[in-house]
Amino acid sequence: MRPSKRAPDELRKVTLERAVARYAEGSCLVKFGDTHVLCTASLEERPPMWVRGSGKGWVTAEYAMLPRATLERTRREVTAGKPSGRTQEIQRLIGRSLRAIVDLGALGERQITIDCDVLQADGGTRTASITGAWVALHDCLAWMRARSIIATNPLKDHVAAVSCGIYKGQPVLDLDYPEDSAAETDANFVITGAGGIVEIQGTAEGTPFSEDELLELLKLAKLGTTKLVDLQKMAVM
């Protein structure tokens, strides 16, 4: 039995609330159970140096966890002078995930930055961030089209992410913190609406996992991301 009493293939309750930040071109408050992340999309007319003159744009992301997002206060990384290795890894993952489903040429020489700020953490902050970031990005691009900044929609597909793991010998979907902290295997899957795999991150915390177990986790992840994409579609209708 899972600590949350969920079935092995059951997501936590997921909500996607749009337009929650007044000044952002796109925003979404995403909740995966008790994990809450505010995602905002900001348009900048100047792209990074390395894409200037290419006719293409760029989508990037920044990620941060508020000091009391967890049981005990964590120090703001700005006071340390630089983001931690974990933070850098997560924000690069979010950026890669979004660029995989964006036509950067249709964006023009502009940059969209997605800020993902974790308000409350209970496992799966990176997967919630990616799922909510897609909604914020969608609304930013719609804002741009409504003002004739771009002529066509650069979005090629949906993208969502979910965690899976092996907990007490059982493959399970969408780990919360009690499961994440005790899982024998912990994995994150980023998958498009068409079912394409953008990224898989998997780690054995104890006994190495088998190929069959990896395929079982992938099966669960595809089930979960299909449901998440359905929620994205309903959110932006």
From TrEMBL:
Q: What EC number(s) does this enzyme carry?
A: 2.7.7.56
Give binding positions for phosphate: 86, 124-126
Q: Which Gene3D superfamilies match?
A: GHMP Kinase, N-terminal domain
A Gene Ontology molecular-function term?
Answer: tRNA nucleotidyltransferase activity
Q: What class of enzyme is it?
A: transferase
Lineage: superkingdom = Bacteria
Q: Which GO terms describe its biological process?
A: rRNA 3'-end processing; rRNA catabolic process; tRNA processing
Any coiled-coil ranges, and where? none
Q: Which family does it belong to?
A: Belongs to the RNase PH family.
Its function, per the record, reads: Phosphorolytic 3'-5' exoribonuclease that plays an important role in tRNA 3'-end maturation. Removes nucleotide residues following the 3'-CCA terminus of tRNAs; can also add nucleotides to the ends of RNA molecules by using nucleoside diphosphates as substrates, but this may not be physiologically important. Probably plays a role in initiation of 16S rRNA degradation (leading to ribosome degradation) during starvation.
* Protein name as it appears in the record: Ribonuclease PH
